[in-house]
Amino acid sequence: MGKLAVVAVGGNSLIKDKAHQDVRSQYIAAHETSEHIAAMVGDGWNVVVGHGNGPQVGFILRRSELAAHELHRIPLDVAGADTQGALGYALGQNLQNELRRRGIDRPVAAIVTQTEVDRNDPAFASPSKPIGSFMDAAEAAVRREQDGWDVVEDANRGWRRVVASPRPLRIVELDAIKTLVDAGVIVIGAGGGGIPVVADERGNLEGIEAVIDKDLASSLLARQLGAELFLITTAVEKVALRFGTPEEEWLDHMKLSEARAYLAEGHHFARGSMAPKIQAVIEYLEAGGGAAIITDPSNLERALRGETGTLITPD
Questions:
Q1: Does the annotation count 299 as an active-site position?
Q2: How far apart are CA 100 and CA 262, in angstroms?
Q3: CATH no. for residue 64?
Q4: Is 192 considered catalytic here?
Q5: 109 and 56 share a domain?
Q6: Active-site residue, selected from the candidate residues 10, 53, 94, 129
Q7: What is the count of structural domains for the chain?
Q8: What range defines the domain where residue 142 resides?
């Protein structure tokens, strides 16, 4: 099947702007992304696709809040599972259609994927990931008292619920994904970082209210599958040092040691966006990964040819 690449697609890349948030618009955006992934397959790559789901989970939680007077609320782990199904359907169908258009006979399967985390992860003691809609102070107080939510004021825009973002430890469906990959199936898995679950003393799993970083989970999946390439698509064509400042510097290439140093300096990469992507790449390369690329979806093929994007390699 050729070399294996794990491609982590940003959830925001499926939403072009506020005017194109509906399901049909996301489906059209998934088609554009699928064209580039199909081109990779045509060039001989075997591909596993991960994806973000932040905006989509937010939509589900908002619907749940609006309907709370009539219907039960949707737990966060179930919302993650829902988005894996919906986005897996959109990406999978588009990818199947695009492969067929190119005359490539390869099956595609989306796997509802659980990711195990440690119930004692320090992140649970200090939830920091905002989710859901904004609230006023009175509603936030009610949610804190009645539902046990952790709530914080968000940049003077109102109050929001925050949840833990623990580190991914294990992709539960790893063996199933490996079996499919070995059989030549293009797999969509670990969507949204995976459904967060914890194990009891007997190894039984249960869902937990948390959000797992999709780049860290995709990095873990790439390591466990032995992928030769880890590719992250995001909103920018290349990685920049001092992004958004007059001293901004776009990077064509970084070595692992340079990526570590830049991340440690603390001011190059935003904590909520590029920093976890660089951390995910570092962990992949430290475990023996071949190379990583960060670019935007429309430049994926050019980046694979070395024409753009940021290539990160071992020292």
A1: no
A2: 43
A3: 3.40.1160.10
A4: no
A5: yes
A6: 129
A7: 2
A8: 127-163
